[in-house]
């Protein structure tokens, strides 16, 4: 295959004699992209799937939430039936706290036996971002002129429930009062109970909890709550899927691997040599250099030490911020969520392009009155992708999930998947490896054998990163993907979800 391409290129160059470069027509570039995108779409072997059927809800209250898929502003195709609105977090008649949800039944190819729950992170960021830009049935991504159908919608897998949580996020109503992740889980489960009263046909489905970023804290705590309160929900929790998750200390997920990350992508950061030498010197002083080679071994030699005394960074050792500042000097469009972005910053209908500045002025898509009306959202709320108020009024008192609930969740679940974009700088994949090697589940600490390179094989693509599974935990690193894996690498995300749900045998 490779030699063929070389021959083709040689043949093409030889057509132009002397110093002429090979000519590439725009139409050729375009057709290559169309062809490659088509190859993505037609890949993905489905090993097991339930017979799809139509879903109807008998409770008359459900009809109040019905969304006509032909009435979504700016969307010029039918997104199919869905249900959305505000649902209280308890049965109390006076309950003032309500979460906003948008529920989609499975598309024609999806299973009716399953239910996927999705939450974005933050804390305080809206799951409608996930719906519109990551894994929903229609997609209006950064730089796209209008909404298009999402070929990799998770509704192709099963029913999906996007929820703006906790209280204080997006359209959700009420005053935040949670102190920690157990409070958060209790409120979310309260919401789910109310939701299942109205949409009772969804009872007894197999449940998968998914999310990204700070949802690396939310999702394991919610799963643990459900496992430790087995009668709380009439659903059968099967597993979790978390992308680029917050799992451990900042010093581990941001600082230790930061300078090595810059070296890996040296020509993307394009720092000058003097500055690189300064970074290298600081990384040595801060005990970051060589940390991974020494401590993140397979199997690990014992609990992994901190590089200093701090779980964030010692004085003068906040190298992540030093790099962050320097990156903007050279690249004003530097995107902490995907380092490959360069000038100019692309337009975003949700006003959150990469790492700002916000360039979509007003209104943001979900802040439009016509959009709010179409989806039963409160028109008196100014919607923002991430909340200005603190959804944990006094901070989140829970420890990161790898130190507490995550081991139990992996042990109780059929499958647990952690995915990580390799082009993410806000949380760095090498840091997730450190967290995993420091965690004990299923009777052992960390992975016992090394993560093989090029072991994440994506159908129709080939190796697209690294994959490893031990004792019920699957860890996937996705090449070229930024922080939001379903957005930046939808095929990889889709395939890993098929694995989570038992629709395929390997990730
Ligand atoms: C589901 O609904 C669609 C559209 O109303 C219809 O075409 C299809 O035949 C239905 N499928 C089943 C299995 O009832
Ligand atoms: C709801 O509020 C009313 C008026 O404040 C009060 O009388 C009633 O007991 C409350 N009901 C519940 C279930 O809390
Ligand atoms: C998702 O479903 C749509 C509509 O049936 C289909 O066109 C598309 O190919 C499906 N995508 C995948 C990845 O299965
Ligand atoms: C490893 O885990 C222990 C607790 O299990 C914790 O005290 C320590 O800080 C962790 N080390 C790192 C590098 O996260
Ligand atoms: C680096 O490690 C040494 C030896 O453990 C320790 O004395 C020193 O304080 C550490 N330096 C920093 C900046 O954490
Ligand atoms: C090298 O980069 C550093 C960090 O951005 C900057 O302070 C310095 O001025 C740069 N030097 C040159 C010659 O550009
Ligand atoms: C786990 O997976 C197995 C095999 O796919 C399946 O039989 C079982 O129902 C699943 N769920 C649980 C909770 O074990
Ligand atoms: C994977 O590749 C990296 C970079 O080339 C190398 O340092 C590492 O040792 C390889 N890992 C394994 C398990 O072979």
From TrEMBL:
Keyword terms: Carboxypeptidase, Glycoprotein, Hydrolase, Protease, Signal
GO biological process terms on file: proteolysis
Top-rank EC class of the record's enzyme: hydrolase
Signal peptide: 1-21
Pfam family, one: Peptidase_S10
Annotated Gene3D superfamilies: alpha/beta hydrolase (3.40.50.1820)
GO molecular function, one term: serine-type carboxypeptidase activity
Alphabetized SUPFAM superfamilies for the sequence: alpha/beta-Hydrolases
Recorded superkingdom: Eukaryota
EC nos: 3.4.16.-
InterPro entries named among the record's database cross-references: AB_hydrolase_fold, Peptidase_S10, Ser_caboxypep_his_AS, Ser_caboxypep_ser_AS
Similarity comment text for this entry: Belongs to the peptidase S10 family.
Name of the featured protein: Carboxypeptidase
Source species: Collybia nuda
């Amino acid at each position: 295959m490779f030699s063929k391409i070389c021959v083709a290129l040689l043949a093409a160059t030889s057509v132009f004699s002397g110093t002429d470069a090979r000519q590439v027509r725009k139409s050729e570039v375009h057709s290559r992209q169309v062809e490659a995108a088509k190859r993505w779409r037609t890949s993905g072997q489905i090993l097991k799937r339930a017979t799809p059927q139509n879903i109807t809800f008998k409770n008359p209250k459900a009809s109040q939430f019905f969304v006509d898929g032909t009435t979504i502003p700016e969307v010029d195709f039918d997104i199919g039936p869905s249900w959305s609105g505000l649902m209280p977090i308890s049965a109390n008649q006076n309950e003032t706290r309500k979460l906003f949800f948008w529920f989609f039944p499975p598309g024609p190819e999806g299973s009716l036996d399953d239910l996927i729950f999705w939450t974005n992170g933050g804390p305080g960021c809206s799951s409608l971002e996930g719906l519109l830009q990551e894994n929903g049935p229609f997609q209006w991504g950064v730089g796209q002129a209008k909404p298009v159908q999402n070929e990799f919608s998770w509704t192709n897998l099963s029913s999906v429930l996007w929820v703006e949580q906790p209280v204080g996020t997006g359209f959700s109503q009420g005053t935040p009062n949670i102190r920690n992740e157990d409070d958060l889980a209790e409120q979310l489960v309260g919401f789910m109970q109310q939701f299942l009263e109205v949409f009772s046909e969804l009872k007894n489905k197999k449940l998968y909890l998914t999310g990204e970023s700070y949802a690396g804290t939310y999702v394991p705590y919610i799963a643990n709550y459900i496992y430790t309160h087995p009668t709380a929900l009439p659903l059968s929790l099967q597993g979790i899927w978390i992308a680029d998750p917050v799992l451990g200390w900042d010093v581990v997920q941001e600082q230790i691997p930061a300078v090595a990350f810059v070296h890996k992508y040296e020509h993307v950061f394009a720092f000058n040599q003097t500055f690189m030498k300064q970074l290298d010197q600081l990384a040595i002083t801060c005990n970051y250099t060589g940390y991974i080679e020494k401590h993140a071994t397979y199997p690990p030699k014992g609990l992994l030490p901190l590089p200093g005394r701090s779980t964030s960074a010692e004085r003068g050792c906040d190298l992540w911020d030093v790099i962050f500042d320097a990156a903007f000097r050279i690249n004003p469009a530097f995107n902490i969520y995907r380092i490959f972005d360069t000038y100019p910053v692309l337009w975003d209908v949700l006003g959150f392009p990469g790492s700002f500045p916000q360039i979509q002025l007003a209104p943001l898509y979900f802040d439009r009155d016509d959009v709010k009306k179409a989806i039963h959202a409160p028109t008196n709320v100014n919607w923002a992708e991430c909340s200005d108020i603190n959804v944990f009024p006094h901070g989140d008192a829970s420890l990161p999930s790898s130190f507490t609930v995550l081991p139990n969740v992996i042990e109780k679940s059929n499958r647990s998947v952690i995915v990580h974009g390799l082009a993410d700088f806000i949380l760095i994949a090498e840091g997730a490896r450190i967290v995993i090697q420091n965690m004990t589940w299923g009777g052992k600490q960390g992975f016992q054998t090394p993560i093989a390179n090029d072991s994440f094989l994506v159908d129709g693509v080939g190796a697209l990163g690294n994959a490893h599974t031990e004792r019920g935990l699957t860890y996937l690193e996705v090449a070229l993907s930024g922080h939001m894996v379903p957005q930046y690498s939808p095929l990889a995300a889709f395939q890993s979800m098929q694995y989570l749900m038992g629709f395929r045998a390997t990730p």
